Amino acid sequence: MSVQTSILMVTPPPGGLWPHGYTVHKGHTPESLNYATVAAATSGIIPSPELLSLQWNQAIDHLTNAKIEITFLPYPQELISQYPPDYDGIFIRDVGMFANGTWIKANFSVPERQRESDAFARMIENKFYVEIKELPPGAYLECGEVFFIETPSGSYYFGGLGRSNLAGHDAMIKIIQPDHVFLLETTGFHLDTTCAPLIDQFGNLSAFMYAPALFSQKSIELLSTLGVPLITLSPEDTCGMGENLGSMAVNGLSLPGIFINAEKFQTPGVEAHISSFGIARSTSPLPYFHHAGGSYHCLTNEVRL
């Protein structure tokens, strides 16, 4: 099995990100409201271009030092030339994913974000010469709701039901045909704000970190069948619960032997537990991105060709 160390990222536009403040988005369920953007908009937070650029450059340094190959895509001009401009396109995770040599295009339950999916699908088709696959109408899937892990012993698909629906996951599963499927109900707007897998240097699923307080009982019982250690997190290490915002530490880039995020975990024992698997850790703060509800996992997307 090849070890995945190649990712996509989007270069911020020359004028910076969210120069007029953060946009509040909500999908088709009450849980799909991004409370981080609500708090930022209510407080009138506008990122400092200089500090945001500093955070971004430091993050790139951390990823580069971990010997991760990064392919940068330019920020689509069409997203910022319309009104209102769209700056959430920096979160390349949400707009689709590579699988079986194709790009599967996200179908957003947040209608105003669908233009991100459209713009990046065209860009990826032209750059990588891959087939673009679209999900059926009414099959909602935003890829911040998906962890897809290919291991020597089989593939794992974790899907969230906050801004995605069962039809969306069914359509995706039909395309990629994973060996193990875990569809999970959480109070997070995207699954990757509530949990994260850990992968050892050989590509094996070593553990799964999650905050049970954010998951339904049915989902907790389902995860108990996973067959790897479950690392329990406090809500403070996630997106938080409702208006009680967390640090988003769980929203990290998890690759074989690597976990990179923006904050140390506050839940006692978690950092030592991660180290026990031989996984290299690196952190660099991204507070201005957290105001938009995203961090390292949101800002990156694995290249699988």
From TrEMBL:
Highest taxon of source: Bacteria
Gene3D superfamilies assigned: L-arginine/glycine Amidinotransferase, Chain A (3.75.10.10)
Protein name (Swiss-Prot/TrEMBL): Amidinotransferase
Natural source organism: Candidatus Magasanikbacteria bacterium GW2011_GWE2_42_7
